Amino acid sequence: MLCGVLLLLTLCGESTATSDLIPTPVLTIQSPDGDIIDCINRMDQSSLKNPLLKNHMFQEFLSHLVKTEEEGLGWQVWHASGTCPRGTIPMRRFETNSTHNKNNPLISDAADRATRGHKYAIAQIENQSFYGTKATFNVWTPVVESLDDFSLAQIWLVSGQYETNDLNTIEAGWQRDAYIGTGCYSTHCVGFVHISSIIAVEAAIAGTSIVGGNQFDITLQICKDPLSGNWWLGMGVDFVPIGYWPVEIFTTLSDHASRIQYGGEVLLYGNTSGVSTITQMGSGKFPDKGFGKSASFCNIQIAQENRTLLPLQNFNFTLGYTLRDSYTIKKAHNQACGTHFYYGGPGPVRSVSVRANRISFTCFVFVVLFVFVV
Q: InterPro entries, from UniProt (predicted)?
């Protein structure tokens, strides 16, 4: 297995994995990267077993979206081996002893997580009511030296605070390596209702960007359905629905988000000798290298209560980073991308050379949900 898309749910700091009993697949697909993709009936997915969803009405389409045919075949590795039938969802198979069911809480608060090896370079808007966002960002293969570390790029929708035990976050993006030892991975956990038969929430992306060469990007959108209240995740410029987070599982995010963040995050645990590991963010280049060399977020839009999408330049936003010599972020503007930013960096400098292929994983796309309730 090379890599995959992850779904992570943490509820009240406890693991919310369901039973290890996996529904009988309608079809099984062997991916070229070694993954096994099971096509299961979407009504049998673990998310719908959440007690909070006892009276939940299954939503097949976003209420204000015209139904369109699913598109996008070819950008995930498993697509080369087949597709799942309509009415089913693709799930990457896990071994029964795999590490996708851990119960250490992962906190989506930069100030707290940075003290435990989490480093950031992010843009943030806050102090308003937000109902979704859309952004295009390129996919890279940053060097990740340790199996315990990771490097990711994502969007955060946040409400509440960890300190007051009412933090809710939704996070979506791509990741290299996995959240080892944190939370509950994948659609085997309750929380996210998977709809798409085309997009596997745990499967490897087939393309990545090359420094100074071809760029490979993804467009993700998270939006709140005005009728059901569910938070929907879609992909592509025209919003191909992937699935949704039911409104019933939220507290402070049940109506709107109070802040949105965009950017990169790495985890630097360090090795057994106490020496920091080398983990790159984005392309591994600092933001001043610009387009084609630095990682970027482009065409950023924010949804208002009436679901109108406004460009980032209409909002006051701040840029921040937690390890200046290793990872930074820089604002930019042009006609193609509007107000956007570059982010990333090479990570801590060490005299010992690091092989770029130390870990053979490529990038992951993943969706993450954290819910902390009193």
A: Glutamic_endopeptidase, Neprosin, Neprosin_propep
CB 173 within 8 A of CB 154: yes
Nearest of 372, 122, 167, 160 to residue 266 by alpha carbon = 122
The Cβ-side half-sphere exposure at 224, using a 13 Å CA radius, reads 23
Phi then psi dihedrals of residue 40, to 5 deg: -115, 155
**The pLDDT of residue 163 is above 90:** no
Q: Do the bridges between strand 328-334 and strand 14-15 make them parallel or antiparallel, or are there none, so unpaired? A: unpaired
Look at the block and give the residue holding tokens 């709107």. Answer: 256
Pairing of strands 295-303, 36-41: unpaired
pLDDT of residue 104: 33
Task: Kindly report the pTM of this predicted structure.
Answer: 0.84
Segment 8-35 mean pLDDT = 64
- CA distances in angstroms from 167 to 10, 211, 313, 346, 371, listed in the order given: 11, 37, 27, 31, 6
Structure tokens at 215: 């760029």
Using alpha carbons, list the distances in angstroms from residue 240 to 100, 134, 224, 250, 315.
27, 13, 15, 24, 27
User: How many helices and strands in the chain, by DSSP H and E?
Assistant: 1, 20
186 or 29, greater pLDDT: 29
Going by the DSSP 8-state scheme, the letter that residue 76 receives in this structure is B
DSSP 3-state of 77: helix
Let me know: does 258 contact 128? Beta carbons within 8 Å: yes
Smallest CA-to-CA distance from 337 within 130, 138, 122, 127 is with 138
Q: Across the chain, which distance is largest between two alpha carbons, in Å?
A: 58
Q: Which residues contact 355 (CB under 8 A, 6 or more apart)?
A: none
